[in-house]
Amino acid sequence: MKMVGFSTLGLPTSGLPKLRLAPVRLAAVGIATLAAALAVCAPAQAMEHKVVIDHPVGPIAADYTGSTRVEMQQIGVAGGAGRPSSLRCQWSVSLSVERDAQVGSSLRARRSMMRDDVVKGSSPGWCSERGNGIDRIIEARRDTLRSAMMAMVAQDRDVILVEADSTHAKLREG
Q1: Domain for residue 8, yes or no?
Q2: SS3 label, residue 41
Q3: Rounded Cα distance, 127 and 70, in Å
Q4: Engineering a disulfide at 7: which of 13, 18, 63, 129 sits with its beta carbon 3.0 to 4.6 angstroms away?
Q5: pLDDT digits (tens, 9 = 90+) for 85-97
Q6: Taking the CA of residue 51 as centre, how many other CA atoms within 13 Å lie in the half-sphere pointing to its CB?
């Protein structure tokens, strides 16, 4: 360890003890980067869609609510003095869709669907400093998120019909 006195710092030294300062090591920065590499999640805006499906039992009213989740991961290390930094923030947006379908007043079916990495990207620097910029990028790609949700809704149509048929058959049997 290097001994540093107040005189080295330009301060008066009359009778004050010398301080011991440990050198800053790049490994410490690496450990901090690893600690920051844990995923940071932030909820984004919700989307909604309603559809009515004709069925022999009766019309099926399905309400879909989609929500997004942004996951960020810090990668790289901060550069030492005079060295470039390799810090990057990798991010991805996952889409979660909750469906609540109802046939008449007695039959109700719920389902959750998830799609990862609908939108993804990276930006230089710390994730904590990139939140607002990433939010703007996601907002600009809102149509991509909406299209992904509508694809999930279209895939769910067959599931709703099978659930309605199955429930109707069970009610007829007993």
Answers
A1: no
A2: strand
A3: 11
A4: 13
A5: 889 999 999 999 9
A6: 15
Contacts of 94 (CB under 8 A, 6+ apart): 68, 69, 71, 114, 115, 116, 117, 118
Please calculate the CA angle 86-69-94 and round it to the nearest 5 degrees: 85
- Beta bridge partners, 108, equal 102
- Residue 6 placed within a domain: no
DSSP state letter for 39 = -
**77: in domain:** yes
Average pLDDT over residues 3-14: 43
Most confident of 32-36, 53-57, 66-70, 162-166: 66-70
> Of 7-16, 77-86, 90-99, 140-149, which gets the smallest average pLDDT?
7-16
Q: How many domains does the chain have?
A: 1
Residue 87: burial class (beta carbons within 10 Å; 0-12, 13-18, 19+): buried
Q: Give the model's pLDDT for residue 153.
A: 96
- CB neighbour list of residue 44: distance below 8 Å, 6 or more residues apart: 67, 68, 69, 70, 93, 135, 138
In terms of residue numbers, what domain contains 75?
A: 39-173
